[in-house]
Amino acid sequence: MTSLAYFFFILSLFFATLLNPVRSHVDEYLFFFGDGLYEVGNTTNITRPDKYLPTYHAPYGTNFFNHSATGRYSDGRIIPDFIGIFIYFQVNLTGQVELFKKVKEIWGEHIQNDTEVSRRLQKAVYFISIGAQDYINYEAPYRRILDSTLEDKVVNNISDAIKNLYDLGAWRFVVQNVAKLGTIPFVRQIFDDRSQELLSTRAQAHNGILPGKLKKLIDYFIVDIACCGNSTYRGQACGSLDYEFCVCGNKTEYLFFDGTHHTDAGNKVLAKFMWNNKS
After folding, report:
1. What is the Cα–Cα distance from 269 to 82, expressed in whole angstroms?
2. Residues of the signal sequence (predicted)?
3. What is the pTM for the complete model shown?
């Protein structure tokens, strides 16, 4: 079960703002919490240095700056990158830190002004994307765990995370809904029809419990086949050294780059919707 301790704390921070006790020219602060959808390249820090990771090699990153792979699960930028652009940040990945509480401590040490630290924490926008992997793991063929309360547990974990952040000074949150899991390429390739239907039902229940305001954004994307991967739905093996895979010709037509993560084009649309519908 995913808990706060198992989150990838993907904190897109910027040293120019973090270490400067004077207010920066761009007075905005963003914190991203989640799984691979918000992963900006931290994976290499928690695995063996010599382990081959496909996300650091082509075809990942082919639409990123300099056409280079960065560890992002996409052909290009992800949602945090676009959000940063929308508010005139220049994305700087070297400012990431491991834990949000540590960020508050560092700000306190360098700013030495509790009122200013509180102001920044309250002004910041906190993005959370989590849940899909919980449902996929619980429905995995080798587990077949039946848990009618799973959705409640996952949503409660998100609620607990938000409460903990609130207790630290956070005020403004954006929580991304779980996609219709039964239709994503990885699930269609690995799971049988019954499991696909159950995963979509779980996602629907999740989004009902955790009221989401995201509307249907992506009806002009190809959503049930990934751009990069193998077999019918290209749901696996993108960038693999052990299996053959193919890459689509026009990545802008696809929502998913690999079996579970979005393309640069898909992330841009999702980010625009989030940013333009703040409340």
Report:
1. 9
2. 1-24
3. 0.53
Measured CA to CA, the distance from residue 98 to residue 102 in angstroms comes to 8
pLDDT in tens, 91-108: 532 333 346 788 888 889
**DSSP one-letter code for 225:** S
Q: Would residue 13 be called left, alpha or beta, if left means φ above 0 and alpha means ψ between -120 and 50 degrees?
A: beta
Q: How many domains does the chain have?
A: 1
Torsion of CA 236, 70, 275, 118, to 10 degrees: 120
Q: Are strands 30-34 and 246-247 parallel, antiparallel or unpaired?
A: unpaired
d(CA 230, CA 226): 9
Reduced to 3 states, what is the DSSP secondary structure of residue 126? strand
Residue 88: how many other CB atoms lie within 10 Å: 9
Query: What's CA 277's distance to the chain center, in Å?
Result: 18
Tokens 């290499």 identify what position? 44
The C-alpha angle 184, 186, 189, rounded to 5 degrees, equals 105
Q: Does residue 63 or residue 35 have the better pLDDT?
A: 63
The position carrying tokens 């508050």 is 104
Residues spanned by the domain of 159: 4-276
Instruction: Kindly report, residue by residue over 68-79, the tens digit of the pLDDT.
Output: 888 888 998 888
Instruction: Say which residue the tokens 């841009």 belong to.
Output: 268
How does strand 246-247 pair with strand 228-229? antiparallel
* pLDDT at res. 45: 63
The CA distance from 158 to 83, in Å, is: 21
Residue 258 has pLDDT above 90, yes or no: yes
pLDDT at 116 over 80: yes
Note the pLDDT of residue 237: 94
| SS3 per residue for 164-225 | HHHHHCCCEEEECCCCCHHHCHHHHHHCCHHHHHHHHHHHHHHHHHCCCCCCCCCCCCECCC
Indicate if the pLDDT at residue 226 is higher than 90: yes
